[in-house]
Write a structure and sequence with these properties.
2 copies of one chain form a homodimer. Chain A is of the alpha/beta class. Chain A has helices spanning 18-33, 39-48, 50-58, 67-81, 89-96, 108-116, 129-139, 149-152, 159-169, 183-192, 226-232; strands spanning 6-9, 120-123, 176-180, 195-199, 221-223. Chain A has a 5-stranded parallel beta sheet, sandwiched between helices. In chain A, α10 links the parallel β3 and β4. Chain A binds chain B through residues 66, 68, 120, 122, 128-130, 133-134, 136-137, 144-146, 150-151, 168-171, and chain B through 66, 68, 120, 122, 128-130, 133-134, 136-137, 144-146, 150-151, 168-171.
Chain lengths: 235, 235
Amino acid sequence: MDGIRALVFDVFGTVVDWRSTIIREGRELGRQKGLDVDWAKFADTWRAGYAPAMNRVRTGQLPWTPLDRLHRMILDGLLEDFHITGMSEDDKEHLNRVWHRLDPWPDSVEGLRRLKNRFVIATLSNGNMALLVNMAKYSGLPWDCVLSAELARHFKPDAEVYRMAAVLLDLLPEQLLMVAAHESDLRAAHEVGLRTAFVARPLEYGPNGTADKGTGSRFDLTATSFIDLAEELEI
Amino acid sequence: MDGIRALVFDVFGTVVDWRSTIIREGRELGRQKGLDVDWAKFADTWRAGYAPAMNRVRTGQLPWTPLDRLHRMILDGLLEDFHITGMSEDDKEHLNRVWHRLDPWPDSVEGLRRLKNRFVIATLSNGNMALLVNMAKYSGLPWDCVLSAELARHFKPDAEVYRMAAVLLDLLPEQLLMVAAHESDLRAAHEVGLRTAFVARPLEYGPNGTADKGTGSRFDLTATSFIDLAEELEI
């Protein structure tokens, strides 16, 4: 891993546990509003809408749209499908911004702090800048720099996003290590010349979910947590 | 100051003391290389080349060029004018990157830490992203987010830069407070609807320099340091 200067991180699922947070906030909302909703299913359905919504932008069906807005478009459909009523516009916006309040996995903050001692650490997420900045502040994620697909006006896995990270950090692609729990993200980063670290997040899709195992491709590193990653990088 | 959500900072001169750092590193280089150079004059001349170089980009004479590259173009001329010889390419690049290693003013880090407790704090500088990220790491500047003119491909005081900050932070212009030691920067921010805080840096151009006093226009706030600014904002 000689020559690595910066680590760029996928965020949803890799750094933060979107599913547990949405379920917890949903249950709280359900109690307040007297709603009977399967919040695990709600969370999974919301997340399942993410790739198709981004693909509408990636294929040109929609103009560039920040993720906050795509999340809201999906949410508006979900509120109908799950028969969730009695929500004011403020309630809906607050719920939509649950993506700004996602809890980190237990090792994320400590692991990032360690990795930051040796490397530039930055997000490289499809989340828009405001979402990522607010999340970092909420969860104490100590990024050196917030980089978003929004800056390239392309969503991962488009090559433009990975290339942009190298340009903005003024590094060669091979000086960047892309860290993600998703094999497709790492494969796309590898295509552009970044090095790759798979971090397993077996609970991303819940106890019965099918998270990537990191066995579908070869990666430069595989780790079980950010602390494990720091140890593999000898920090 | 109700409704302020984020503080965006000019960096060179406002957060960091470019002049003292360049003089100190220059003297060290002079000792190593046996050079007889007036490093204060060298620093002032380098900085004096900054606005004209940016204006070549702003007027379309040059295509978009990151500040690191403009600094290098100016430096190459200075090395001739100051009869500085015996510099390898690595030496020149290292000297050019003194702008990545600028020391903060004595109140900057503590003041930013306090301001960060209440607000999003971000750079809004003509420095390129890599320069600002490296400087933050070098000096421990605790930014929530690094924003650069590079992201707008315009230099301040072009309106595009200030507008971009509001868009990327998903805030209204009036929810941003631009903090700078330079009146022209604040006037341009005000034109776009940002609120403005002048922080006096009387030594920016040295003991005999003519730093802005903050009296040429009205600003929403004026302060003598970032700690004073935090107190005015009641943090």
